What does this fold into?
Amino acid sequence: MPNVVVSSEVSIAYESFGDPGDPPVLLVMGFGAQMLGWHEDFCRALADRGRYVIRYDNRDCGLSTKFDEHPVDTGTFIATVSSGDLPAALAMVPYRLRDMADDGLGLLTALGIERAHVVGTSMGAMIAQTMAIASPERVLTLTSMMSSTGESEYGQNSPEAQAVLSAPKPADRAGYIKAAEKELVWASKRYGDAAVLRELAAASYDRSYYPAGLGRQLGAMILSGSRADALRELRVPTLVIHGLDDTLIDPSGGKRTAELVPGAELLLIPDMGHDRPRELWPDLIDAVVSHTG
It folds into this structure.
C-alpha cells in the first residue's frame, strides 16, 4: 500500500481500484477509522461501475503520518473546551479540518488528478465539505454521507452513542475486538452485525493500532467550527446521504446540510445507521454512480 508525500510534514497512505482513465472518486474516511472502513469489496464494486476509486488514511490514522510530537489528552481537551477556555483549546491541537482537507487534495495532486468526485463519511464528509468549500475548482461533485455542518444544534448523538464513543477502548487485541460490538448502538437496526464489527476491528488493530491520534482528530473537528455560511455559498453539485437509524450523528445533520447547500439532493435511507451494511451497498453505489455520472 503506497504512501505519497502531500506536504512538508505529511505523507498519506492510499490504495486505488479500477482504471485510472475512469472518473476519479476520492473516498474520505471518518473519525479514528482507517481506509479499511471503506471495504475493499465496496471499492471494487464501485470501480466495476466505471469509477477510479481511491481510498486513503487520514493523518494521525492507519499508515499515514502521526503527530506524536503534539500529544492531546482527550479528557483534558474536552474539559478545556467545556470550560470556555478557547485559546487554551486552540493551542492544544496542531491542525484543523482544513489541513486534513489539504491532505486529500494533496493526494490528488500527487496522483496527477486535477479534479475528482469526493465522497466523505462522518468526519470524512466534514473534510470533504471543507475540500469543496476551500477548493471548489478541484471537486467535481460532493457526496456528504452521515455527517453534519459543524453547527451544534444539528446532528447530535444519543446519550447511548455518546457513551460508547467516549469510552476508552481496551488496549489488548482481544478486548479491542470485543469492544467493537458496542458500536451496534449506532448501526443499522436491521442489518447491524457484530461479526462484521469484530472483523473490521481485528484488521484495523493488526494494521495500525493508534489511539493517540483520536484526541487530535476530535480537536480538529470541534475547533473547526460551523461550515453553515460557507455551505450556503457552495456551488458544487452535492448529494447528501443519511441513514434514518443513525444515532451517532442524528439525521438532522444530513437534512441541515442539504438545506444549506444550494440545489443539494437529499437521500434518506431506511435501515441504515452510522454504517454502510453490505445489504445496502447496491443502493449506495447506485446513488454515487448516478451523482458522479
Notes: Residues 26 and 178 are 31 Å apart (CA to CA).
